[in-house]
Amino acid sequence: MVLGTSSGAGKSWITTALCRRYSDQGLKVAPFKAQNMSNNARVVAGGEIGSAQYFQALAARAEPDVRMNPLLLKPEGDTRSQVVLLGQVDAALGAMPWRGRSARVWPQIAAALDALCAENDVVVIEGAGSPAEINLHASDVVNMRVARHTGADCLLVTDIDRGGAFAHLYGTWALLPAEERALIRGFVLNKFRGDAALLAPAPAMLEERTGVPTVAVVPMHWNHGLPEEDGVFDDRASAAGGALHTRVAVIAYPRISNLDEFQPLKNVPGVRLHWARSPADLHGVDWVVLPGSKATAADLAWMRAQGLDRAVADHAAAGGRVLGVCGGLQMLGEALVDLHGVDGNAAGLGLLPLVTSFAPDKTVRRTETRFGTCTGGWAALSDVGLQGYEIRHGHTAEHPAMAAQGDRALAVLPDGLGWQNARGNVLGLYLHGLFEEPRVLRALFGAAAPTLDAVFDGLAATLDRCWTDVGRALFPSDPRLP
Fold it and tell me: Is position 315 annotated as part of the catalytic site?
């Protein structure tokens, strides 16, 4: 099990690297995270799971499964989340108090974990936040309760780049009950810059106080190619080299979702990707992207408050390319109509002659389709096939009155999945995963990002170089070894 002293310590990528490392030994491997709080989700058989577990499953060469992330919390505001249990939205759980949920969900979590353990040689478990959040310890279903249930050998990871790493490790260990401390088998120092010899004598001193050795020192690793699980990525890691030809700005509204689908753009030579939170951030860009949103009407109001609505409209009026994905597509239309209290009513940006109607039912499915004829700046997508996924409330169609007057949107994907404006520079899609399709990257840029397998292999190789001698002994390549 991979635990962290905080969010952002590096649990997700280390879990991914371990999944590939053990799979490379010929073992049958599965990832697991009991509860994930993220608006980055992927569609798998049975529903949706957090993106991190989806990628971990691919690293393990396993079919992604709802049991790998039985509980997914998708924040819709500062104090509420949509609750997804075993792939499906559970409104009753969402209405319950936070601490009251654990008794309801633990049996399903334990059953999912037990089944994965029975079916695999090794299960690599990711924790959440920190196991030392003592205000949540009594209702814990994701950290030490999982570790105790399986008797997992636990790594505790800290981000040394933040400072205070040894205090974070010691304080986390010290706050755990004795029976849980015994499960911590090794400390990992992540994101280290400099000469590892300068760490001495701190690792030895920490081991004297805790009995736990430092088993790996992982260097700062930019451009590893894996999407960040939480939050927007660091702009310092967003250029893949080559002569710069395309500047892409992604609007970073508060309830952004599925931001991980833009990771491939970071890895395409000549593309510069950054986040936009103000009109000034759109100066000089070639593309503006409106990504998915877990609260479309609220994020649209935020854009107006920042002046980004006008800035996006000005960019489009000047002929710049605009792409809206899922909630972004809905924002590009004339209006959002909500008769069921799903998301909220709002006027759209008016860049596509479309209207979105929200409905209680949620569409969650994988889709394979093909572009029809695209025009203008997106003409290169014509007749390009792609696979993607839909996670959405709402249905979008042409605005009847505008269509009657001849102001029509061009359908570029079947079944209402994609639309263009008459000028051809504004494109809206319901389908997530556009830039994860190599055929699309070749059509738009004449190049492709590294494959996921190459990314997973690189992560595993990086981690393998970082074990200390005691780490290699405690965590051999084959975990079945004594």
Answer: no
Who contacts 77 (Cβ-Cβ below 8 Å, separation ≥6)? 255, 295, 298
CA 269 to chain centroid, in Å, comes to 22
Q: Are 215 and 186 in contact (CB under 8 A)?
A: yes
- Choosing from 374, 399, 432, 466, the catalytic residue is 432
Question: Using only C-alpha atoms, what is the Rg of the chain?
Answer: 23
Question: Rounded to whole angstroms, how far apart are CA atoms 341 and 271?
Answer: 40
Report the C-alpha gap between 66 and 281 in whole angstroms: 38
CA dist., res. 217 & res. 204, Å (int):
14
pLDDT tens string 59-89 = 999 999 999 999 999 988 777 889 999 999 9
pLDDT at residue 231, rounded to an integer: 52
The 10s digit of each residue's pLDDT in 141-173 is 999 999 999 999 999 999 999 999 999 999 999
Print burial letters for 159-189: b (CB count within 10 Å at least 16), e (below 16): bbeeeebbebbbebbeebeeebbebbbbbbb
Q: At 457, list the tokens.
A: 């292999």
Tokens of 231: 């939050």
Instruction: Return the bridge partners of 155, or none.
Output: 2, 186
Do the Cβ atoms of 449 and 441 come closer than 8 Å? Answer: yes
Task: Give catalytic status of residue 283 as yes or no.
Answer: no
How would you class 349 by CB atoms within 10 Å of its CB: exposed for 0-12, middle for 13-18, buried for 19 or more?
buried
- Phi/psi region, residue 458 (left: phi>0; alpha: psi -120 to 50; beta: rest), is alpha
Task: Round the average pLDDT of the chain to a whole number and report it.
Answer: 92
10 Å Cβ neighbour count for 280?
A: 9
Q: Which residue has the tokens 């570029």?
A: 412
Residue numbers in the chain where pLDDT is lower than 70: 222-225, 228-241, 478-482
Rounded CA separation 260/227 (Å): 5
CA neighbor of 228 nearest in space, from 195, 198, 250, 202: 250
| CA–CA distances in Å: residue 193 to residues 156, 213, 422 | 19, 20, 51
Catalytic residue among 326, 393, 399, 466: 326
Which of 98, 97, 86 minimizes the C-alpha distance to 34? 86
